[in-house]
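Justification of resources, computational component.

The compute hours requested in this renewal are based largely on the per-chain cost of generating structure records like the one below. Each record pairs the submitted sequence with a full C-alpha cell output. That output is archived, and it is also reused by downstream analysis tasks.
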Amino acid sequence: MKTWNQLFVRHGWLLEGKKENVFNCEMETVENMQFLLDRLRKARVDFVFKKDFLTINSSVIFRDGRMIVKDYAYMDNVCYDRKTDKMTDDTKCEPYLETVRQELKMSDDIILGDLLQYLK
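The structure output for this chain reads:
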C-alpha cells in the first residue's frame, strides 16, 4: 500500500517526509507548491500548509478500492481493524467506502477535465 510519503517520492516532489503525512516543503519551488496545493484543494484533500510544512489529514485510497483510514483498512473485500490487524465486520468500513467511491469519481472528473483542456 502507498502512503502519501511514498506517493510524493514516487512522483519526484522535493518534499521531505518528517513523519507520516507531514512534509517539510522548503526545498520545493513556489510554483510547484502552488500547483500541488491547488490539486489537493480540487481533490478535496484535507490538509494544512503552514510555515513550509504540509500536513495531510486525509485517508489514503487506491484505484482498486483499497483504503486506509484512521481506524480501519479495507483490501481484497475484507475490513481490518488497524489497531489489532485482524479482520472485523464489514459494516465498520462501509461508511468510508462510499466516500472512497465519491473521491475516486471526483479525481476522475478532475483528471479528465485537465486532459480535455490540453486536447483543445
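Residues 94-119 form the longest helix (26 residues). The chain is about 40% helix and 25% strand.
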